[in-house]
Every structure is written in structure tokens, then in C-alpha cells.
Automatic annotation (TrEMBL):
<comment type="similarity">
    <text>Belongs to the LysR transcriptional regulatory family.</text>
</comment>
<dbReference type="Pfam" id="PF03466">
    <property type="entry name" value="LysR_substrate"/>
</dbReference>
<keyword id="KW-0238">DNA-binding</keyword>
<dbReference type="InterPro" id="IPR058163">
    <property type="entry name" value="LysR-type_TF_proteobact-type"/>
</dbReference>
<keyword id="KW-0804">Transcription</keyword>
<dbReference type="GO" id="GO:0006351">
    <property type="term" value="P:DNA-templated transcription"/>
</dbReference>
<dbReference type="GO" id="GO:0003700">
    <property type="term" value="F:DNA-binding transcription factor activity"/>
</dbReference>
<dbReference type="GO" id="GO:0009891">
    <property type="term" value="P:positive regulation of biosynthetic process"/>
</dbReference>
<protein>
    <submittedName>
        <fullName>Positive regulator of Tartrate dehydrogenase/decarboxylase/D-malic enzyme</fullName>
    </submittedName>
</protein>
<keyword id="KW-0805">Transcription regulation</keyword>
<dbReference type="GO" id="GO:0043565">
    <property type="term" value="F:sequence-specific DNA binding"/>
</dbReference>
<dbReference type="InterPro" id="IPR005119">
    <property type="entry name" value="LysR_subst-bd"/>
</dbReference>
<feature type="domain" description="LysR substrate-binding">
    <location>
        <begin position="18"/>
        <end position="211"/>
    </location>
</feature>
Length: 229
């Protein structure tokens, strides 16, 4: 995919931030961006909190979820969702959940993400929205750690479809309660309008095309592998 040359981006520094659960997804995209636009100087910060774009000098924050303050400008980079999953070994030791309330009695792997309530999974289904309180012996603020624990059979995780799709296809993970999911759309959030900042416009457009190419949209209900019952 080709992009127009951005002469005004020369020797421009662009500071980006992302939640601690997402660096492995964003880092390859920024590497490709750097190859395409060597005149851009990129700084990539990983944060486990919401950043103050103005006071912290951040040009672009990549956020997951649709809850964005109205004073900020946002453009959706990709549609995504999270699914509930566990390893076959875990499901052999524990009765697979048959309804959402069963999660309260099972070990769950909880991620502390920015301003999200800890241990409360906000899920969607065809019937509407649901909130379930979950607990477990292991928790982290890093998605890759929780992903590995899930593969190790330590509990049920709520993970991005992007992260677990290959594990589910290979049988290393099994999707449970597939009628439930959590929206996890990816947004570029910034304070300067794209028309006034060539470096931000170039970065946002590149990331949007990159995610569309590497992470095509996948409907939540189409991702079901098994109900675990």
C-alpha cells in the first residue's frame, strides 16, 4: 500500500502513547511507519493510565474502547472485540461455564487497564449489556502476561480477538460463552485537527490502513468456536 509523500513531516517528532496491554500490536505498525517515513522521529510510550495529551506533550494516544472525552478528537483505526477463552487443560479441571454468572465461581485472569474498573467485565450480547464481577489468584496490568497465563491453564481470560484468534484456531485456547463479547475498537485520540498537523495526519492515516490490512474486521458472533457445554 502506498502513501503520499509528506514533505512537511521532515524532521518532525511525533510522540505516541498506548495502553500497556497493546504494545505488541502497535509496535510493528510503528516500525512499518518508520520505514515508510524516515523523516518522522517517533517516540512510543507505554502507559497504564490515561494520559493528558496537552500537559504531557503527547501528540497521539492509541486507545481501546469507545469511551472518549468529548473535548478530544478521535478517529477509529480498527474494529475489534474481546472474547472469553481458556485452555483445554483448564476446562478439563473445571466445569466450563454455561451461563455468565458461572464466571463468579471460576478463576479468572484480570487485567488492570487504565481507568477501567478492576475485576468488572463489561460484556455485550444480543440481549444487551452485562456486568460481571470476577476474581482469581493471578492478575496483571500487562495483556501479554495474562495471555500466557491463559495458555498455561491458569484461568479464564477476556482477551482481544486479534491476540487469541490463532490460539483458538490451533486448539491451544477454547472460546467459552461465545454469545458474550466486549467491544474493543481501536482509536487514535489527539487534540490538533488533522488538517493542521501533517505529522499526526500521516501517522493516523498510516495506522488506519495498517490495521485494516493486518487485522480485518471480524464479527463477534462469528468467532464462536464452542460453548464449553
Amino acid at each position: 500500500m502506498s502513501f503520499p509523500t509528506c514533505a512537511r513531516c521532515r524532521r518532525e517528532r511525533c510522540v505516541l502513547s498506548v495502553a500497556s496491554a497493546w504494545p505488541s500490536v502497535v509496535a510493528p505498525a510503528l516500525s512499518a511507519l518508520a520505514l515508510q517515513y524516515p523523516q518522522l522521529e517517533l517516540r512510543f510510550d507505554v502507559q497504564d493510565r490515561l494520559v493528558d495529551l496537552v500537559n504531557e506533550g503527547v501528540d497521539l494516544d492509541i486507545r481501546v474502547g469507545d469511551d472518549i472525552a468529548p473535548n478530544l478528537i478521535a478517529r477509529q483505526l480498527a474494529a475489534n472485540h474481546r472474547v472469553l477463552c481458556a485452555s483445554p487443560q483448564f476446562l478439563a479441571r473445571h466445569a466450563p461455564p454455561k451461563q455468565l454468572s458461572d464466571l463468579a465461581a471460576l478463576p479468572c485472569l484480570v487485567i488492570k487497564e487504565r481507568d477501567h474498573p478492576f475485576g468488572v467485565w463489561q460484556l455485550h450480547s444480543k440481549e444487551g449489556q452485562h456486568a460481571i464481577k470476577v476474581t482469581g489468584p493471578l492478575s496483571s496490568n500487562h495483556g501479554e502476561i495474562v495471555h500466557q497465563w491463559c495458555l498455561d491453564g491458569q484461568g479464564i481470560a477476556l482477551r482481544s480477538w486479534w491476540d487469541v484468534r490463532e490460539n483458538i484456531a490451533s486448539g491451544h485456547l477454547v472460546q467459552v460463552l461465545p454469545d458474550y463479547w466486549q467491544p474493543a475498537n481501536v482509536w487514535a485520540v489527539y487534540v490538533s485537527r488533522l488538517a493542521t498537523s501533517a505529522k499526526i495526519r500521516t501517522t493516523v492515516e498510516f495506522l488506519r490502513h495498517y490495521f485494516q490490512l493486518h487485522y480485518p474486521q471480524h464479527e463477534p458472533t462469528a468467532s464462536a468456536v464452542g460453548r464449553g457445554d
